[in-house]
Design a protein that fits this description.
The chain is α/β, with parallel strands linked by helices and about 400 residues long. It has 19 helices and 11 strands. The protein is globular. The structure holds S-adenosylmethionine. Its EC number is 2.1.1.-.
Length: about 400
């Protein structure tokens, strides 16, 4: 592979913003990709993937390059040189690479790779937490998998098309896909591509949604005509799925504490041809109390550490703090206790997270069932998805039923 100067500069600029200005990697990459209209898909792929890879392996590369934060631009070029050397890419004779000790880099890599937290590039506290929650063997495999690039998975919008027709139409736009066993609406891209540019996307035939995430709406067992509340709806990935499972019939109430997120859902719902969603921002306890005892189904897609989706958000490794995880667990406890009151007798609810930590998942459910608010509920089933076992995002979902009086 030959390195192109303007693409490498884009990578360095992106890393500077992510590491030194605390910007989110996905936002930085999005804006980098708009920098030069002449870039083809390969150039764009190089910029995006290289930025993500260096963010992913920041700790390992920094130790090999012997540089410390905050990184100046020379430091970032040294990280880049480590990345390129380990990839077997020949370094051009640019001044940034002068004196790069190629052999030493490989030796340091072999040495440092013996220590998991450095090899997998995670903070000490995260490694300790992972081991204490999942045990050495499982954590080692999980965190290794979480460093791989995630596949692009689509969810067919069954309100508009079928999986087969979607596959054919995408093929006509040069995007080849395959079906995934046990994921009824999912298609996996055979090669990465910017699917958002396709006419198929603009017509609302699919959404991009990981295969594990697609199991959550199915888990809730919704039917046409029901009253369903999605109380942590965000921009509505799962709300849209629920709407298509309900065939646009019944009442679907999407709630979140951020109105800005619900506004995004509005745009997506229009594109998806969904018209049974009502959006309500949670600005007090009132909108929740009004729904006490009314919902046939409730989805609590709870805010969480996101430790199951590090493949998609590698910068979360550096942005997450242990104090945040502790406080989010308290929020999970509160949302379970408060929002579960919306479920009617005989109704069902799903509690889900994109975390692999038992303390955010099954332990949270156990604690809820032992609380006063949880007493009327029983656990029907739960599912723990680890990335290294499934090949998809780490997720947890529990289906609970409120006993009839
Ligand atoms: C995991 S995300 C939801 C993702 C979304 N369901 C989807 O499928 O795209 C969790 C959401 O919970 C929201 N949230 C955080 N605290 C909340 C609270 N106390 N009540 C309701 N929503 C909350 C966040 O704004 C965020 O959108």
């Amino acid at each position: 592979m030959r390195l192109h100067r303007n693409l490498c500069f884009a990578v360095i600029d992106g890393l500077y913003k992510i590491f030194n200005e605390n910007e989110y990697a996905d936002k930085v990459v999005q804006s980098l990709l708009k920098r030069d209209k002449r870039w083809g898909s390969r150039d764009r792929g190089f910029v995006a993937e290289t930025v993500y890879e260096i963010v992913r392996y920041k700790r390992l590369y920094a130790e090999i390059a012997n540089v410390k934060e905050p990184f100046d631009r020379d430091n970032l070029w040294r990280l880049f040189a480590v990345w390129a050397t380990l990839k077997g890419i020949r370094l051009p004779d640019w001044k940034y690479f002068e004196g790069t000790p190629t052999r030493k880099i490989k030796g340091r890599f072999d040495e440092l790779s013996k220590t998991r937290k450095i090899k997998e590039s995670i903070p000490d506290w995260m490694d300790e937490l992972g081991v204490s929650e999942l045990g050495e063997a499982t954590w080692s495999k999980e965190i290794e998998k979480q460093n791989e690039q995630a596949d692009v998975i689509l969810r067919t919008n069954t309100l508009k098309t079928t999986k087969k027709d979607l596959q054919q139409r995408l093929a006509s736009e040069d995007i080849e896909t395959e079906f995934l066993p046990n994921h009824p609406s999912a298609l996996r891209l055979k090669e990465r591509a910017n699917v958002f540019r396709t006419e198929t996307f603009k017509d609302g035939w699919f959404e991009v949604q990981d295969a594990s995430s697609q199991l959550v709406a199915d888990f809730l067992d919704v039917h046409s005509g029901m009253k369903v509340v999605d109380v942590c709806a965000g921009a509505g990935g799962k709300t849209l799925h629920l709407a298509s499972l309900m065939e646009n019939k019944g009442q679907l109430i999407a709630m979140d504490i951020y109105e800005s997120k619900l506004k995004k859902l509005k745009v997506r719902a229009r594109r998806n041809g969904v018209h049974n969603i009502e959006m309500k921002a949670i600005d007090s306890t009132k909108p929740i109390k009004k729904l006490h005892g009314k919902a046939d189904r409730l989805l609590i897609d709870a805010p969480c550490s996101g430790l199951g989706v590090l493949r998609r958000n590698p910068d979360a490794k550096w942005k997450l703090q242990p104090e945040f995880i502790e406080s989010i667990k308290q929020t999970q406890k509160e949302v379970l206790e408060q929002y579960s009151k919306m479920v009617k007798d005989g109704g069902k609810m799903v509690y889900a997270t994109c975390s692999v930590l038992p303390s955010e998942n099954e332990k949270q459910v156990e604690q809820f069932l032992n609380s006063e608010a949880g007493a009327p509920f029983k656990l029907i089933k739960d599912k723990k998805i680890l990335a290294h076992k499934s090949g998809f995002d780490g997720f947890y979902m529990a289906l609970l039923e409120k006993k009839s009086n």
